[in-house]
C-alpha cells in the first residue's frame, strides 16, 4: 500500500529539483530502485525515453513524487551510495515508520546572493535606503516563524500606521537559516491594503498566475480563487510562506485561510478573529527608541550620533518616535543638513496648528511630517505631487498614466517620481505587465494632499483632456494602462464634463473595450459607472439612453463574467431594434471585416421586464430577498454561502459562510441591520450585517430547516422543517419560545400574519394551518388542497392567505378558512409565492421556469415573466412593490420591474418542430403547451392553429408538396395541409409514442418510427392503408429514405441498423452495430456510408452496400447523442453529452478537429451546404468552422435547445428553446467588401 508523501519530502523534491537533475546520473540509481520494487519496468521505459540526462532525472523525480513516502526513502538510500551530496538534500524528509529521522548533515547552504534571489522572486520589498534594524522585534517575529517549521499557522504583526510593520516583516524573513529550514518553498509577498472584493479577486488572480506552474484560466470568483490558491500552495509550493502586507479586513484574511503558513501585517488585530489556523501575535506598540531615532537621523545626515545637534532629540520627542516621521525628516536633512532648527520649527508649528480632527487617521505627527516634506519640494515637483489629488487611495498609478497626465516622456516621469520616492512621499515598484514603474501614495499622505489642494476639478479636466488628445476622442481605442478604463468615467464626472461622459456611457464601443480590458470583474464596474454617473448627463433623453445601456449589461452580466467572454456585439443585437444599444451593435456588425452576426428576426415586442440577471453563486440559488430600501439583495443556496450584493450593479459587499450545508432561506430584518438564515444543517443563524459577524446559531430542529422569517417587529422569528414542526424564536434573548405541532408531513413554508399574532404554515400533508403564537394552539386548518402544499404567503394587510399545490393557487380567509378563489397556472407546479405590498397581487414561481403575477380579486393572471432557464425557487417583492427578485435552480438571481402589467400573449412553443425555407420566408410546424398543432409563417408573425392533438407532439416533418406530419406520444400522426392550414387526416396504428417522421421526395409516402419497436409506411393517397415494418426489438428512433425512395434506413435502441425494402416492407440488411442503444444515425448523401452513434461512446461507419464496418471512432469520453454527415459525403460530425463535437474524415476515420464550448448535451448538428461550417445546439446555438474554431454563439433565453434548421445558404436559422421561445435568426447582411463568405 502506497504511503502518502510527507509535506517536507514533497517540498524537498520541488525545492532541490534543479540541483538533483543537474548532478544525478539516472543509470546509477535505476536498477536498485527497480530491485526495491519502487520503479516498474514500464516506469523505466518512460524515463529512458527522455533524450537528455537532465530530463531523465527530472522524469524520475516526477515518478517518485507520485509513489509516496516509501519511494522517497528508497531514493534517499540509493543516493547515499552514489550521490551523497544529493542524499543530504533529501535527508530531513526521510521517515521510519512514519516518524521523521533526526536531520543529520543538512547544511545551511543558502548564500546571501541566493537569499536575495528568493526575496526578489517572492516580491519582498528591499530594505529602505536608510535601514534601522530593530533586532528585538525582528527576533520576536522570527521566533514565531520558527514555530511554523513543521506545522501550518499564522503570525500576526500588529501596530499603528507608520510604525514599521512592513519593514520588520520583510527583514524577519531575509535570512538564510529561516529560508532553508522553515520555508524552503519560498516566500511570497502580497500587498493588500484596504480593498473591496472585486479588487481582491484581481489580486488573487495575479497571485495564482504568479504561483501556478500549470497554464489554467484565472479563477472567476473568490471561492474559486481560494480553492485554486490552496491547491497551488499544497502541490507546488509546500512549506512556503505567504506574507500579507497591510490587511484591513477579516473578510480578506479569511480568503487566505487555506491551511498554509502566513505572515500578516495589520493595524487591526480583529482581522484574524475568523481564522481557523493557529495564530501567534507580535504587537508593535512603540516605534523607534530614542537611540534608534538618533541613529537613523545620523545615517541620513552621515554624521556620528555624538555630533547630532540638540534638535535631533527634540525631533524625536515631537515625532513620538514614529519611524515614518523620522525617515521623512531624515530624507529632508540629507539634502539640507543645516536646517535642523527650521525642520523642528515647521514640525512643531504644523503640530500645534492642526490639533484638530483634520485627518481621519489620528496620527497627527505623521500628518505634520507630510506637511514639512511637501513644503520643501521645488515648485514644479510640488505641483506634480499635488496632481495625485485626483487619485483614490491605494490605487497603483503607473508611469504611463502620469506620462499622459503631465504630457511628458516616461523618463521625465520616472526621474521626478524618484525624487518623491527618495523623500518617502510615494512608493514605487516595477510593474512586469506594464513594463514600467507604478506608484502609490500612502493614505495619510493622500489625505494631506486632498485637504490642501484647491484645484481638484482642474486636475480632473487636465487628465481627461490629455487622454482625449491621446486617442483623438476615440476613448475605446485607449491602450490598457491598468487604470484609465476603470476610472475615466469618474474623472469626467468630477470634472463636470457632461459631453465627454456621454461619449462613454452611450457608447457600445467603450463598453466592449472596458469589458475586454477588465475581464470578469468588468460588468460590476460598468454597472457602477451608470449608477454613479448617469445623473451627470445633461438631458432626460440622455439619461434614458444610459438606462438602456445599463439594462443591457444588467441582464447579460451572468454571461459577461464567463471565460471566454461572449461576443458583446452579438449580445447587443438581441436588444430591442429601436434601442441605441441595438443600433450601435448593428453598425459594429456591418463594419466588421470578419464577423458573423445574427439578427433575431421575430424577437417579441414584450420579452420580459428584467432589470438585472446576476450570477453570484455556484450552484442552485434557493432564495433571494430585498433589503428594506431595495438597494441590496441577500441570496443563498447550494454553495453554502450567504451573499449581500448591490441590486444596481451585482457587486458583492458581504459574504457569510458559516453554515455547513445547503442554505434554504435568508432574509433581512425589518430594520435592515440583521440577517436570518436556515439550512439543511438543521440550524438557523442570526447575523449582524454592519459588523459582518454571526450573533447566534439557533439549534432545535431535528432535520432540514426550509424557511425562517422575521416577525414584523423584528423581535421574533418562525421556522419550519422536515421534522414536521414550526418553531417560534425569541431573537432578543436568543431562545426557543415554543414548538408548533400538528402537521403529519414536512413543513415547507411559514409566514407571520400582518399583526404577528398568528403563524401560517404549509405542509406536504396537503394542509395549511394557522397557529396562535401566544398559546401555540391551532386556529384554522385549510384542507382544500388535494396534493402536497409547496408554499404559502400572507397578505400584508387583512387576513388573506395564498397557498399552492401542483398548478393551483388557492386564496382563502385566514380566520374562517373559507376559500375565496383559485388561480389556475399553465405550469405543471407552483414552487413559491409572495404577496406584493399592494395587497392585491401574488407572484408565483413555477417549474416551467416562469413567474406569474395574479390579481387575487379576479383570480386571473396579470403578467408572465420568462427568463430563467430552470425552476424558480423563490420570489419576493421590494417594499414598494415596484420590483421583484427571483432565485432559481439555474444558478442566477433576477430582478424584474413590476409595472406595465401585460397578459401572456406570447405563445409558448414545444421544442419539437420542422421548418421549410422559401425565398423570403420560412414555414414552421410545431405545437404549443396545449398540444395544438401550429403552422407559423410570415416571418414568425402569423400563427395558425391547424389541429388539436390529445397528447404531446414529439415528432414533426414537412413535405415538399405542402403537407406536415405531427406524431404524438399516443401513437397518432396528424397530417396537415400547410397551405390551407387544415387537418387532412389522422393516422393511427402505433401503440406507443411516435419518435420520428419523414416524407419521401414527392410527399406521397410517410415513414414513422415508434417506441412500439415498429416502423410504419403510410400511403398518403390511401391513408387507411399502411405497411408495418417489424424486426427491431426496441424503440426505433430514426429512419431515412434513400434517394430513389425504394429503401429505408432505420436505427433502434436495440443496437441495430436495418435497411428495408419500401415496397415489400421486408428487411434487406440488418447490422448488429452496437451492444447498447443507438441514439442517432445518418446516411451520406452519396449513399455509400451509414453512421451510428451510441451510448457505448463510439461512432461507427458502415458500408451501405455490404453492411461491413469501415471505422470505429473512439475519441469521445461520454455518450454520443447526435451525428451528421457533410453534404459532400467527406466529413462526419459527432456530438457527445460532455458538450464536445468531433470532426472526422469519413473515408479514413481520422479525427480532424474538436469543437469545445457547450456546457450540455449536444442535441443536434448540421453542416453548411459547402461543408465548411457546422451548426450545433445544446445549452445554446453555436457556429463553428470545420477546423474546430468558433465562429459565433447565440445565447437563448433558456438552458436547452433540441433541434436546429438552416436554409441552403446557411444564412437563416430556426430553433425553439426549452422556455418555449421561437428563434428565427438571419445573418446580418454586410457590405460586399466586408461580407463573410460561407
What is this entry, summarized?
With 1238 residues, the protein is of the alpha+beta class. The chain is built from 31 helices and 70 strands.
Written account of the structure:
The protein is α+β, with helices and mostly antiparallel strands and about 1250 residues long. It is about 25% helix and about 30% strand. It contains 31 helices and 70 strands. The chain has a five-stranded parallel sheet, sandwiched between helices. A hairpin with a 5-residue loop joins strand 60 (about 1120-1125) and strand 61. The chain starts with 6 loop residues before the first helix and ends in an 11-residue tail after the last strand. Residues about 105-110, about 350-365 and about 1230-1238 have low confidence and may be disordered.
How would you sum up the global shape? Answer: globular
What is the oligomeric state here?
Answer: single chain
Spatial strand sequence of the major β-sheet? 4-5-6-3-7
Helix content: 25-40%
Low-confidence stretches: 103-108, 350-365, 1231-1238
DSSP, total strands: 70
What is the percentage of strand-forming residues?
A: 25-35%
Average residue pLDDT: 88
Termini gap: 59 Å
Gyration radius from CA atoms, angstroms: 36 Å
Note the total helix count.
31
Largest sheet: 5 strands, parallel
Class by alpha and beta content: alpha+beta
GO molecular function: ADP binding
Organism: Patiria miniata (Bat star)
InterPro entries: APAF1_C, Apaf_helical, CARD, DEATH-like_dom_sf, NB-ARC, P-loop_NTPase, WD40/YVTN_repeat-like_dom_sf, WD40_PAC1
Protein name: CARD domain-containing protein
Amino acid at each position: 500500500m502506497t504511503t502518502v508523501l510527507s509535506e517536507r519530502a514533497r517540498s524537498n523534491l520541488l525545492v532541490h529539483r534543479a540541483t538533483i537533475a543537474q548532478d544525478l546520473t539516472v543509470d546509477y540509481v535505476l536498477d536498485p530502485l527497480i530491485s526495491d520494487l519502487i520503479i516498474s519496468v514500464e516506469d523505466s521505459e518512460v524515463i529512458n525515453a527522455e533524450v537528455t540526462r537532465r530530463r531523465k532525472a527530472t522524469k524520475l523525480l516526477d515518478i517518485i513524487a507520485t509513489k509516496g513516502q516509501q519511494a522517497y526513502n528508497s531514493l534517499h538510500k540509493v543516493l547515499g551510495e552514489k550521490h551523497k551530496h544529493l542524499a543530504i538534500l533529501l535527508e530531513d524528509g526521510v521517515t521510519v515508520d512514519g516518524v521523521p529521522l533526526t536531520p543529520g548533515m543538512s547544511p545551511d547552504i543558502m548564500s546571501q546572493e541566493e537569499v536575495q534571489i528568493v526575496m526578489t522572486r517572492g516580491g519582498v520589498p528591499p530594505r529602505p535606503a536608510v535601514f534601522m534594524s530593530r533586532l528585538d522585534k525582528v527576533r520576536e517575529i522570527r521566533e514565531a516563524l520558527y514555530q511554523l517549521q513543521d506545522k501550518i499557522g499564522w503570525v500576526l504583526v500588529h501596530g499603528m500606521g507608520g510604525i514599521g510593520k512592513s519593514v520588520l516583516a520583510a527583514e524577519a524573513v531575509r535570512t538564510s537559516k529561516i529560508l532553508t529550514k522553515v520555508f524552503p518553498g519560498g516566500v511570497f509577498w502580497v500587498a493588500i491594503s484596504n480593498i473591496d472584493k472585486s479588487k481582491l479577486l484581481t489580486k488573487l488572480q495575479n497571485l495564482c498566475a504568479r504561483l501556478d506552474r500549470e497554464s489554467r484560466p484565472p479563477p472567476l470568483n473568490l471561492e474559486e480563487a481560494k480553492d485554486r490558491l490552496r491547491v497551488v500552495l499544497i502541490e507546488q509550493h509546500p512549506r512556503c510562506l505567504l506574507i500579507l502586507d497591510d490587511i484591513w479586513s477579516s473578510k480578506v484574511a479569511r480568503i487566505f485561510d487555506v491551511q498554509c503558513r502566513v505572515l500578516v501585517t495589520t493595524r487591526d488585530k480583529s482581522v484574524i478573529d475568523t481564522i481557523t489556523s493557529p495564530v501567534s501575535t507580535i504587537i508593535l506598540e512603540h516605534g523607534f527608541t530614542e537611540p534608534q531615532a538618533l541613529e537613523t537621523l545620523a545615517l541620513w545626515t552621515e554624521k556620528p550620533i555624538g555630533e547630532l545637534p540638540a534638535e535631533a532629540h527634540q525631533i524625536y520627542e515631537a515625532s513620538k518616535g514614529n519611524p515614518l516621521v523620522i525617515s521623512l525628516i531624515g530624507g529632508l536633512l540629507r539634502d539640507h543638513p543645516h536646517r535642523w532648527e527650521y525642520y523642528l520649527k515647521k514640525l512643531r508649528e504644523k503640530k500645534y496648528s492642526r490639533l484638530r480632527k483634520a485627518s481621519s487617521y489620528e496620527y497627527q505627527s505623521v500628518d505634520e511630517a507630510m506637511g514639512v516634506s511637501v513644503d520643501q519640494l521645488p515648485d514644479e515637483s510640488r505641483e506634480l505631487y499635488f496632481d495625485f489629488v485626483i487619485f483614490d487611495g491605494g490605487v497603483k498609478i503607473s508611469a504611463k498614466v502620469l506620462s499622459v497626465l503631465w504630457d511628458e516622456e516616461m523618463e521625465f516621469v520616472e526621474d521626478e517620481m524618484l525624487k518623491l520616492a527618495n523623500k518617502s512621499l510615494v512608493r514605487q515598484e516595477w510593474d512586469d505587465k506594464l513594463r514600467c514603474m507604478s506608484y502609490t501614495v500612502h493614505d495619510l499622505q493622500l489625505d494631506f494632499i486632498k485637504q490642501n489642494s484647491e484645484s481638484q476639478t482642474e486636475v480632473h479636466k487636465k487628465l481627461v483632456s490629455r487622454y482625449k488628445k491621446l486617442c483623438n476622442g476615440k476613448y475605446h481605442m485607449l491602450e490598457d494602462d491598468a487604470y484609465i478604463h476603470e476610472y475615466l468615467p469618474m474623472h469626467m464626472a468630477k470634472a463636470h464634463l457632461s459631453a465627454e461622459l456621454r461619449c462613454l456611457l452611450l457608447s457600445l464601443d467603450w463598453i466592449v473595450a472596458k469589458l475586454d480590458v477588465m475581464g470578469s470583474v468588468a460588468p460590476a464596474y460598468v454597472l457602477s459607472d451608470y449608477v454613479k454617473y448617469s445623473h451627470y448627463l445633461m438631458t432626460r433623453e440622455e439619461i434614458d439612453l444610459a438606462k438602456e445601456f445599463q439594462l443591457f449589461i444588467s441582464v447579460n452580466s451572468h454571461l459577461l463574467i464567463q471565460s471566454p467572454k461572449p461576443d458583446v456585439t452579438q449580445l447587443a443585437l438581441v436588444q430591442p431594434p429601436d434601442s441605441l444599444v441595438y443600433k450601435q451593435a448593428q453598425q459594429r456588425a456591418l463594419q466588421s471585416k470578419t464577423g458573423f452576426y445574427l439578427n433575431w428576426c421575430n424577437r417579441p415586442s414584450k420579452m420580459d421586464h428584467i432589470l438585472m440577471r446576476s450570477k453570484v453563486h455556484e450552484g442552485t440559488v434557493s432564495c433571494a430577498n430585498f433589503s428594506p430600501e431595495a438597494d441590496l439583495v441577500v441570496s443563498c443556496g447550494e454553495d453554502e454561502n450567504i451573499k449581500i450584493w448591490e441590486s444596481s450593479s451585482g457587486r458583492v459587499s458581504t459574504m457569510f459562510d458559516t453554515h455547513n450545508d445547503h442554505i434554504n432561506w435568508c432574509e433581512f430584518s425589518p430594520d435592515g441591520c440583521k440577517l436570518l438564515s436556515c439550512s439543511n444543517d438543521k440550524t438557523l443563524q442570526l447575523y449582524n450585517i454592519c459588523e459582518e459577524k454571526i450573533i447566534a446559531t439557533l439549534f432545535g430542529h431535528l432535520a432540514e430547516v426550509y424557511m425562517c422569517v422575521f416577525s414584523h417587529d423584528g423581535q421574533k422569528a418562525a421556522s419550519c422543517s422536515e421534522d414536521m414542526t414550526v418553531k417560534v424564536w425569541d431573537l432578543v434573548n436568543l431562545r426557543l419560545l415554543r414548538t408548533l405541532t400538528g402537521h403529519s408531513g414536512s413543513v415547507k413554508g411559514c409566514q407571520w400574519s400582518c399583526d404577528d399574532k398568528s403563524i401560517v404554515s404549509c405542509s406536504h400533508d396537503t394542509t395549511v394551518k394557522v397557529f396562535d403564537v401566544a398559546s401555540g394552539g391551532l386556529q384554522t386548518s385549510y384542507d382544500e388542497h388535494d396534493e402536497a402544499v409547496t408554499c404559502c404567503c400572507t397578505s400584508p394587510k387583512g387576513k388573506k392567505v395564498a397557498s399552492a399545490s401542483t398548478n393551483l393557487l388557492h386564496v382563502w380567509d385566514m380566520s374562517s378558512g373559507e376559500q375565496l378563489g383559485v388561480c389556475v397556472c399553465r405550469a405543471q407546479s407552483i414552487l413559491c409565492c409572495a404577496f406584493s405590498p399592494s395587497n392585491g397581487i401574488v407572484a408565483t414561481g413555477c417549474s416551467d421556469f416562469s413567474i406569474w403575477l395574479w390579481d387575487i380579486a379576479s383570480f386571473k393572471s396579470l403578467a408572465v415573466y420568462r427568463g430563467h432557464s430552470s425552476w424558480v425557487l423563490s420570489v419576493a417583492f421590494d417594499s414598494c412593490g415596484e420590483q421583484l427578485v427571483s432565485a432559481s435552480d439555474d444558478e442566477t438571481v433576477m430582478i424584474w420591474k413590476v409595472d406595465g402589467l401585460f397578459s401572456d400573449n406570447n405563445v409558448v412553443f414545444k421544442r419539437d418542430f420542422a421548418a421549410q425555407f422559401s425565398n423570403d420566408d420560412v414555414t414552421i410546424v410545431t405545437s404549443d403547451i396545449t398540444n395544438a398543432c401550429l403552422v407559423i409563417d410570415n416571418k414568425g408573425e402569423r400563427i395558425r392553429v391547424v389541429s388539436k392533438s390529445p397528447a404531446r407532439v414529439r415528432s414533426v416533418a414537412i413535405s415538399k408538396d405542402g403537407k406536415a406530419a405531427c406524431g404524438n406520444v399516443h401513437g397518432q400522426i396528424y397530417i396537415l395541409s400547410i397551405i390551407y392550414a387544415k387537418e387532412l387526416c389522422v393516422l393511427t396504428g402505433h401503440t406507443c409514442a411516435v419518435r420520428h417522421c419523414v416524407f419521401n421526395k414527392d410527399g406521397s409516402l410517410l415513414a414513422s418510427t415508434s417506441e412500439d419497436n415498429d416502423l410504419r409506411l403510410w400511403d398518403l393517397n390511401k391513408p387507411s392503408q399502411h405497411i408495418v415494418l417489424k424486426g427491431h426489438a426496441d424503440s426505433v428512433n430514426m429512419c431515412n429514405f434513400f434517394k430513389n425512395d425504394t429503401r429505408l434506413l432505420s436505427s433502434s435502441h436495440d443496437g441495430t441498423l436495418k435497411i428495408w425494402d419500401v415496397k415489400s416492407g421486408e428487411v434487406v440488411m440488418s447490422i448488429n452495430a452496437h451492444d447498447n442503444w443507438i441514439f442517432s444515425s445518418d446516411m451520406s448523401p452519396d449513399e455509400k456510408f451509414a453512421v451510428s452513434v451510441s451510448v457505448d461512446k463510439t461512432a461507427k461507419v458502415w458500408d451501405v452496400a455490404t453492411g461491413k464496418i469501415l471505422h470505429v471512432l473512439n475519441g469521445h469520453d461520454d455518450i454520443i447523442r447526435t451525428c451528421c454527415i457533410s453534404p459532400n459525403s467527406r466529413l462526419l460530425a459527432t456530438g457527445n453529452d460532455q458538450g464536445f463535437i468531433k470532426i472526422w474524415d469519413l473515408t479514413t476515420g481520422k479525427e480532424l478537429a474538436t469543437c469545445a464550448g457547450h456546457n450540455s448535451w449536444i442535441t443536434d448538428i448540421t453542416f453548411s451546404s459547402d461543408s465548411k461550417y457546422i451548426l450545433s445546439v445544446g445549452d445554446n446555438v453555436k457556429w463553428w468552422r470545420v477546423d474546430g474554431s468558433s465562429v459565433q454563439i447565440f445565447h437563448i433565453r433558456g438552458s436547452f435547445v433540441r433541434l436546429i434548421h438552416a436554409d441552403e445558404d446557411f444564412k437563416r436559422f430556426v430553433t425553439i428553446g426549452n422556455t418555449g421561445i421561437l428563434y428565427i435568426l438571419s445573418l446580418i447582411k454586410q457590405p460586399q467588401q466586408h461580407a463573410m463568405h460561407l
